[in-house]
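A reminder from the course coordinator: this example appears on the midterm review sheet, so study it carefully.

Given structure:
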C-alpha cells in the first residue's frame, strides 16, 4: 500500500492543477522539469537495460536518433519535408529494434506491420505527432510494470499505474470532467508562450473542436506531470541499482553530477523559454529526441522478449539480485 500511495496522491494533485490550468501546467512543467527528466530517464534506461543498449546496437540507435535531432532542427527552416523525414527515421529506429530482437517469420511480420504503420503516418503526419506526444507520456507504465517485478505482491501497484495512465485519461476524454475544465485562458503564460492554439495542437488531433481540444490538453498536462513524477522522484528513489549501473558506464556523472547537469542545462534553457518560448520549445524538442526515441527499442525488447543474450528478453536483462527481490524499505507488504 505504501508504495502505491505516492502515486495516488501525485495523481490527485496533477489532475487538480491540470483541470484548473492545463496550459500553465503543460508550459511551466516543461520549463521546470523537462531537461532534468531527460537526464534522469536516460540514466535509468541506460543503466537498467545496459545489456540491450550496448555495442553496435547502441551505436546504430544513437546514429538514427541523431538524424531525428537534425530533422527537428531542420523543420524550423524547411518545415514539412523535415517532418516527413523524421517519421521515416523514427520507423527506422523501430525497425532496428525489431531486427535486434526478432528472427525469421516474426521479423518479417514486424517489418510488414511497420511498413503499414509508416504509410499511415506519412498519410496523416499531424495525427502521427499527436500520438507520439501522448505515447511518450504513457511509456512509464511499461517501465514501472517491469520494475514492480521485484515486489513480492505487485498487483495493487500495477493496478494503480493502470488507473492513472489509462483510466483517468479515458474518463477525461469521455467528458467526465467537463464540469471542471479550466479552459485555455489568455493568461500571462499564454502571453509569453504564444498562441494557445499552437500549444493545444501538440496534444489534440487536427481539426478537433474547442471542447475536444481542451480535453486532450488536460490529458496531456496531467500525464506530463505524472511523467515527471516518475522520472524525477519515484524511480531515482526506488531504483538506485539502475543509477549505479549507469555510473559504472559513465563515472563522470556519478551521484549528484547527473542532477547538476540536468538542473544546470534546464536553468540555461529556461532563459530561452522566457525570451522566446517557440525557439526554446523547438531546441528542447530536438535534443529531447534522444530520451524519447531511445525508449522504443527497449520497449520492443520488453514486449517481444525474444532474443537470448543481447536483447532485453534474455535472462541477463531481468536477472535480479537477492537484494532486488526484497522489497524496498518504503514498500508495504
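Designed residues:
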Amino acid at each position: 500500500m505504501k508504495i502505491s500511495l505516492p502515486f495516488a496522491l501525485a495523481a490527485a494533485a496533477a489532475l487538480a492543477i491540470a483541470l484548473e490550468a492545463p496550459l500553465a501546467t503543460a508550459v511551466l512543467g516543461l520549463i521546470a522539469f523537462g531537461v532534468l527528466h531527460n537526464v534522469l530517464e536516460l540514466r535509468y534506461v541506460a543503466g537498467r537495460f545496459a545489456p540491450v543498449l550496448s555495442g553496435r546496437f547502441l551505436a546504430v540507435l544513437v546514429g538514427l536518433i541523431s538524424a531525428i535531432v537534425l530533422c527537428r532542427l531542420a523543420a524550423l527552416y524547411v518545415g514539412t519535408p523535415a517532418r516527413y523525414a523524421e517519421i521515416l527515421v523514427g520507423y527506422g529506429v523501430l525497425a532496428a529494434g525489431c531486427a535486434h530482437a526478432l528472427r525469421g517469420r516474426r521479423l518479417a511480420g514486424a517489418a510488414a506491420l511497420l511498413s503499414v504503420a509508416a504509410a499511415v503516418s506519412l498519410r496523416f503526419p499531424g495525427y502521427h505527432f499527436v500520438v507520439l506526444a501522448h505515447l511518450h507520456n504513457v511509456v512509464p507504465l511499461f517501465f514501472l510494470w517491469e520494475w514492480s517485478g521485484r515486489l513480492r505482491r505487485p498487483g495493487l501497484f500495477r493496478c494503480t499505474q493502470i488507473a492513472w495512465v489509462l483510466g483517468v485519461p479515458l474518463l477525461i476524454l469521455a467528458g467526465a470532467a467537463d464540469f471542471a475544465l479550466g479552459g485555455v485562458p489568455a493568461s500571462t503564460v499564454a502571453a509569453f508562450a504564444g498562441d494557445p492554439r499552437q500549444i493545444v495542437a501538440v496534444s489534440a488531433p487536427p481539426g478537433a473542436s474547442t471542447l475536444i481540444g481542451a480535453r486532450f490538453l488536460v490529458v496531456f498536462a496531467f500525464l506530463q506531470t505524472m511523467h515527471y513524477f516518475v522520472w524525477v522522484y519515484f524511480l531515482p528513489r526506488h531504483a538506485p541499482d539502475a543509477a549505479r549501473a549507469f555510473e559504472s558506464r559513465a563515472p563522470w556523472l556519478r551521484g549528484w553530477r547527473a542532477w547538476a547537469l540536468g538542473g544546470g542545462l534546464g536553468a540555461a534553457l529556461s532563459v530561452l523559454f522566457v525570451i522566446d518560448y517557440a525557439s526554446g520549445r523547438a531546441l528542447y524538442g530536438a535534443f529531447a529526441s534522444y530520451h524519447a526515441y531511445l525508449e522504443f527499442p527497449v520497449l520492443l525488447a520488453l514486449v517481444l522478449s525474444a532474443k537470448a543474450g543481447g536483447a532485453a528478453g534474455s535472462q541477463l536483462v531481468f536477472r535480479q539480485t537477492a537484494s532486488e527481490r526484497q522489497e524496498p524499505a518504503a514498500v508495504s507488504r
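The longest helix spans residues 210-238. Residues 306-333 have pLDDT under 50 and may be disordered.
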